[in-house]
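User: Can you predict the 3D structure for this chain?
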Amino acid sequence: MSRSLFAAVTAAALVAATAAQSHEIKAKAAEAVTASFDILSASAEAKDHLVTFTMRTRGTVGADKPAKTGHFAGSGVHAYVWPTNLDPETVGFEKGSGILAAAVTAHPDFNDEPLFANRGAEWHFHWVVLAKDPACGAAGLKVRDIEPGAKPRLPKTWPGAPIFIDSPGYRPRLGGSAVRVTVPFESAEVARSVGFDAVTTALKVNGNLHAPFLCVSGVFKVASGDLSLPGRVQAK
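Assistant: Here is the predicted structure, written as structure tokens:
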């Protein structure tokens, strides 16, 4: 891409309200992408205030996880991510703090679910806020850092890491070529307004454990191809 992931998804979020949009996102198979991360489609369905995000891949979802290193610093994360057009305030973060994304992740070297013990290596859910940072290499994207001394608004189930992340305990469902996760919003109106894209990606914890703390280190595939957030929730 000619611009960073953050710039692309920010621009898409700004025009999403007026652009013509599809509902489900479909993508062509890409043999160069690992099958478990090769997105073929992504969709979302709303029932009252609940939204179920779904992603389908060419291979078995969840089949590939980062190699265990035995160390937190420098360790890896793999993720199935749905960037959205919603303000982070919608789920309890500081208003206007970045791009709100739903993410199903696995990382064998650490646990970040305070509601559960030692589940980091299992696929689990997070809300994250994405932000631009040129220090994160080609992707130019990170999970937003919490600056020293800052006290931003954070969800009640924030796990204590120095980044904008939430661990609400919603359980993803993986089976065959599909991963699904159902999340609540404050109202049916908000649920019906969700615009989204789908991305498979790798992230890496900073080896020195300081900002940028968690960078996007590699993008496997973007469902739309350009992060234009073409997905729209369908009423169930």
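The chain has one domain: 5-25+36-235. The longest strand covers residues 39-47.
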